Amino acid sequence: MEYDAIICFETHVELKTETKLFCGCRVAYDIPPNTEVCPVCTGQPGALPVLNKKAVEYAIRAGVALDCTINQRSRFARKNYFYPDLPKGYQISQYELPFCENGCLEITGDNGNPYPVGIKRIHLEEDAGKLVHSSDSFDDADYSLVDYNRSSVPLLEIVGDHEQNPLRSIQEARTYLEKLRQILRYIGISDCKMEKGQLRCDVNLSIRPRGAKGFNNRTEVKNMSSFRFMMEALEYEMKRQAEILESGGAIEQETLLFDEVKHITRPMRSKENAPDYRYFPDPDLLEVNLEDKFVNDIRSALPELPHQRVKRIMDEYAIPRDDALILTKDRDISDYFTACASHCRDPKKLSHWIIKELFRLLKDASFAIGECPIAPKDFAELVNLVSQGNVTPGIGRKILDDMFKTGENPESIIHKKGLKPIQDDDQLAVFVDAVMDENPKVVSQIREGNLKPIDFLVGQVMRKSKGKANPKSVIEIIRGKLGL
Ligand SMILES: [Zn+2]
């Protein structure tokens, strides 16, 4: 039997604020354990939280970008549970009255049509610390250590809607998560690096026979932190649930973990399952009342979103949609393109050179675009030279390789390496004569009316001139000499 999937994410995103959510400790990575901690984020008695305004601004910015209703009133709540990485014995989160509700994120569905994926709510909460177990390290001693540097770092939780426009396939799930990550990066609130734990998700899945209405029980796979494992977990769950239904069984509503070694899902221990968090409003924090001006300022300063940038690049530079999508996948790349484009007379060629040549160099060097040593103005200048036929594409690539290595501009590389194109037709004619002398058979073929081998002669001239000849001029000279 064929099944439809109903998939829904709870995504945790670490916000890129300078400081933690309720204290002045820095948000930092790769620092010694427990060096960014204070009485507040380690839960000392009497220490009081003070809300980080920037984190609220980022939460609202996400809400605006994801078409949510922004609640004027919102409130923090205590989520109570015991775990050694949680020094207060509760996590400050939101329960009733989150900052944002009822949004959507439009993706291209599997059928190729736009599909607005439902977002139920977006709220702010604090992260927990990190446990390091001795079994993770080389020695065999049996102990666990805890690092509170991450404790109370602001997290945004974006909760999908299981009933309003959920995701309908594993492919749509992937598209959604990629798009969500792209938007969050565009609006500058998180780097969303999964390998650093800045984007993690819990994913819910249930299935029903194709076309059926109503919902079966769903399972939740916790704490996925890579696209690959998420896809594997969903595929495994989909198959497992289908087998249960086909054998006449019922799906148990439960929380699962994905075993990354065995590539299967398995239930969490029952103690970890379905906990009662006894939420109640945090008495140490006042209710938040957002002023209209605060929200409107965020709304009007919202950075350009990916779909808006795609459209602008298509309209302003006449770039085909497929290329515009590639150029805008990453905000930094599209920033680089637009910075180049303001100096470039041939935006189409520019786009082509970025996608084909620059991406190759970045990939070989494992560089992000931010590490690219070529100034946009210089890149644009090189494309201008190629576009005007002053430099052949082959020589252009060589110059680009050098620019990437040295960070120098094209003019100085051309000068240093003697790559200046041969403009002088008399000089080119010398090469053409030599090539024609060396290939009498080819020349007579052309004289007999077969024009195809002209390309061969041009290639030979290019070789002799070390690529410095302009192929267009060479063709003209050959034709002239053969009276064509
Ligand atoms: Zn602190």
Give a quick set of tags describing it.
single chain, 484 residues, alpha+beta, Arc Repressor Mutant, subunit A, 3 domains, nine-stranded mixed β-sheet, three-stranded antiparallel β-sheet, 39% helix, binds zinc ion
Please work out how many helical segments DSSP would assign.
15
Q: How many angstroms separate the termini?
A: 69 Å
Our Rg estimate from Cα atoms comes to 30 Å
Could you tell me the strand content as a percent range?
A: 15-25%
**How many structural domains can be distinguished in the coordinates?**
3
Which outline best applies? elongated
Extended strand count: 16
If you average the pLDDT, what whole number results?
Answer: 92
> Which small compounds were modeled alongside the protein?
zinc ion
Residues in helices, as a percent range: 25-40%
Q: Which structural class fits the helix and strand makeup?
A: alpha+beta
Q: Which stretches are low in confidence, meaning pLDDT under 50 for 5 or more residues running?
A: none
Largest sheet: 9 strands, mixed
Strand order of the largest sheet: 2-6-7-10-1-11-12-13-14
